[in-house]
Each structure stands twice: as C-alpha cells, then as structure tokens.
Amino acid sequence: MQFAKDSFYIVLRDRLAALNPARTVTIDGHSRPGILVTENERPGMDATLTGVFCLSWGKESAITAPGAQPRLRVLECAIDYRMQGTDDYGNSDRGRLLTAMDSELLSITSPASALKCDYTQIPAKVLGATICWTRPKLGPAKSEGKLLARTAALEVYFFPEGA
Fold it and tell me: Which residues of 101-115 are buried (b: 16+ CB within 10 A; e: fewer)?
C-alpha cells in the first residue's frame, strides 16, 4: 500500500510543480511544491497552511468479485486546502483564489493513472503495475473566518505488492 501512496503523491507533486511553479510551501526553511501528505508532517501543521494541498489517507479495503480472491485494493484520500484573500481586496477575492486551486487540483489529477514505483531507492524502481484514481469530488466551500476552505475526496485503486 505504501508504494501506491507514494506514487500518487509524487505524481501529483510533480504535476503541480510543472503546472504552477509558484504554488510552493516552505517548511523548516525548505521550499517545495505546495502539496503534502499530512501523515508525513508534524501533527497539526496542515491546519496553519493556506494555498497548500494537504492529502490525508483514509480507509483501505478490498474489491472482491464473487468467488474470487480479493486482489484489487481501494484507498480513500481526502485533499484539504484553504485560501485567504488578499488585503488589497479586503479578503473578498478568497473565492476566486479557492476556485483557482480547484482548477489546479482537477488538472493535476488528470490523467487519472500513473506507474506504481518504489521510491525508497534512487533512482525509483518502476514496479510494473499502474495505480488509478477517481475524479476528485469537490466538497462545499466552508468559511473559516478570513479563510475559505474545501475538501475534495477521491479513491485510489491499486494491486498490492506481490499480488
């Protein structure tokens, strides 16, 4: 499962860096594309970030055909992001800024497939399988004071290692 998680994140990270090089986040003095996996960061750090896509992994389950061994797996993914408007506009542009992030998310998740790789080695080793995912379902925009936030949900499908 970890290879599927890593592959999904790396593909989205690289696509975001190509689509919008200005969307970055600086953590501990290091700048990188503005997407992160919350389980890989300090607890609670994602709650303070704006203009960053924060991936959280949910339940994993098997897809089973009647009478068959479960092989195909599905993993839930939530992507949270929030924007604060600019002072020049009295924060009234936060909706436009959130919509821009919506468009970026829909762009970086298409096409909805990628090679599954082992990123624990350099260079990464292609594992000979593909992961795929559903189109993100954008939740409603929620006002959080000066911030406007949204959660998008999708599912990642993969075959486990050794299957």
Answer: bbebbeebbeeeebe
